[in-house]
Amino acid sequence: MKAAITGVGMSDIGRNTGRAAMLHLAQAADRALARAGLTRADIDGIATYPGKAEGSPGMSPLGTGEVRAALGLQTRWHSAVPDGPAQMAPIMVAAMAVATGQARHVLCFRALTESSSQSAGRRASIPGAGKAQVGGWLSWLVPVGAMSASNWAGWMAQRYFHEFGMTREHLGMVAVGQRQFAQANPMAVMQKPLTMDDYLAARMISQPLGLFDCDIPIDGAAVVIVSAADAARDCRLPPLRIEAMGSALRSAETWDQRADLTTMGAHDAGADLWARTSVTPQDVDVLALYDGFSIFVPLWLEALGFCGHGEAKDFIAAGHIGPGGRYPVNTGGGQLSGGRLHGFGLLHEACLQLWGEADGRQVADARTAVCGMGGGFIAGAMLLQRD
Amino acid sequence: MLPLPELTAENTAFWTGGERGELMIALCDACGKAVHPPQLLCPACGSQQVAPRAMAGTGTIHTFTVNHQPWLPDMAVPFVLAVVDLDDAPGVRVTTRMIDCDPQAVRIGQRVTIAFEQSGDVWLPLWRPIAEGEAA
User: Fold this and answer.
1) What is the pLDDT of residue A54?
2) CB-CB neighbors (< 8 A) of A129 in chain B
3) Tens-digit pLDDT profile for residues A362-382
4) Strand, coil or helix: what is A262?
5) B99 → chain A, closest CA residue
6) In this structure, what CATH number is given to the domain that contains residue B62?
7) Which of A4, A168, A206, A293 could make an SS bond with A239 (beta carbons 3.0 to 4.6 A apart)?
8) Coil, strand or helix: which one is B83?
9) Helix residue ranges, H only, B17-119
10) How far is it, in rounded angstroms, from Cα A82 to Cα A90?
11) Subunit contact B6:A139, Cβ cutoff 8 A
């Protein structure tokens, strides 16, 4: 692979921060540039997901144009990707851009102000709320009352429970374990202990998913710098080589028609990832798996081949994915306890692990990380290695 | 009120068939494949002879969720959202709210039949349980 991650940065994320999205973005960018040993003048490409989105308050308040203007970037290449392999799409297209010589160092960003938007009385993350009509794949969900992704994920959880005997306790182990990780990460928004009793007693959101099965809307931004392999060698930290990417999708753009609803687009993307490398799941030290809802974690574990279909509940119960486990997942607390940066926060944490910067929760000599982003038909997977 | 679907050449039959009490699903005249969400081309054989046909409007719950969170200020909760395998359109599921049911009694494998509710210029399909012994 001809591309590498050379810097990551996250802003001082929080709930209802009252800070403008651009201030979060600038802070994340400066932190990423400092890690990479680069300046704004070195950045010649920019990419984001999904691009400025007006429909859902705070979901994507910044486009590439205003970020280029605010940071004074002189770019040779720019892209916003609403329709691609999940929230990972900008990082993937950036890798392809540097591999084909379109740019040397691409600033990939994700900014959200969903917490402030929600506090202002606008329901964040509810597509179509306040609109008269919706189109596209949302038109099969929102008009019948399936407004929230928790409903769509709830269908998958209910079917998975039915077929494989998973229970709420298994998902509780995901939530409780990630909270333990969060307590070792000062940037995570949730720091209070979470017990299984707390988890089980919490109110239902979309049965069988309860409050702690859902990730947390926040204000914040994260930046990932993708560099051409030769340019990466000049950076401050060892390059994190993009060993493989997977973005296959072999089912329709729906949340309800995939033949097997105990699988997701993740299963297509995951298989595609391993087909492009000699690295295997057994070589992985750290996992960053999309946890917009807890049920996505077992589905991603299976999608990426860490266990067989239907085996994730036992894999989780065996303690493999929590603190001290062989395959630690979302070591910064994930979105469930760290806050929702749409996958960018998970990737940020995986990179810190590979650079040995995850103080208090560092996985010893982590060299290989796998990241899976997205849920339902939306999926992208990436394998990173520090040489 | 919930947002309504934007009507297109592909989906108008589905969203308006309820005016006549009909659940309309796109079928390929050439190879018989049922296509949902509806589209103008058959993804199996490439034919353009795809047309909406009235289905029996019965099916079996494949999965469901009980929504407890009011996502809009006037949203009454709890309610059930069911993903239903149609009896006469293999591979096609129709997903919508359930009516006339006890949310905690809904189960996978339960038999349901379609009902419709007009909203603006569309007729929203809704699933209703088929009572034990009721003809369907």
Assistant:
1) 76
2) 3, 71-72
3) 999 999 999 999 999 999 999
4) coil
5) A144
6) 2.40.50.840
7) A4
8) strand
9) none
10) 9
11) yes
Give the gap in angstroms from C-alpha A217 to the nearest C-alpha of chain B. 15
Cβ pair A3, A226 in contact under 8 A:
yes
For residue A310, give the amino acid letter: G
CB atoms within 10 A of CB A78: 21
pLDDT score, position A68: 98
A146·B81 Cβ contact <8 A = yes
Asked if residues A369 and A288 have their Cβ atoms less than 8 Å apart, the reply is yes
- Chain A residues closer than 8 Å to B8 by CB: 135
Cα–Cα distance measured from residue A312 to residue A314, given in angstroms and rounded to the nearest whole number: 5
Flag whether the pTM goes above 0.90: yes
| Partner-chain contact B2 A147, CB within 8 Å | yes
Q: Which B residues, 19 through 48, put their C-beta within 8 Å of a C-beta on chain A? A: 36-37
CATH of domain A3-119+218-232: 3.40.47.10
The answer to whether position B4 is within a domain reads: no
Q: What is the pLDDT of residues A320-359, one digit of tens each?
A: 999 999 999 999 999 999 999 999 999 999 999 999 999 9
**What is the structure's pLDDT at A130?**
74
Q: Report the residue from A142, A145, A150 with minimal CB separation from B79.
A: A145
**Chain B nearest-CA residue for A137:** B37
Domain spanning A147-216+241-386: CATH 1.10.150.240: no
% of chain A exceeding 70 in pLDDT = 98
Angle at A10 between CA A4 and CA A13, to 5 degrees: 155
Considering the domain boundaries, does residue B80 fall inside one? yes
Taking an 8 Å cut-off on Cβ atoms, the answer to whether B68 and A207 are in contact is yes
CB-CB neighbors (< 8 A) of A258 in chain B: none
A162/B6 Cβ within 8 A:
no
Q: What does the alpha-carbon distance between residue B1 and residue A302 come to, in Å, rounded to a whole number?
A: 39
Q: What residues in B contact A151, CB-CB < 8 Å? A: 65, 67, 81
Which residue of B lies nearest to A253 if distances are taken between CA atoms? B37
In this predicted complex, what is the ipTM? 0.97
pLDDT values of chain B reduced to their tens digit, one per residue, 136 residues: 899 999 999 999 999 999 999 999 999 999 999 999 999 999 999 999 999 999 999 999 999 999 999 998 889 999 999 999 999 999 999 999 999 999 999 999 999 999 999 999 999 999 999 987 776 5
Residue B5 lies in a domain: no
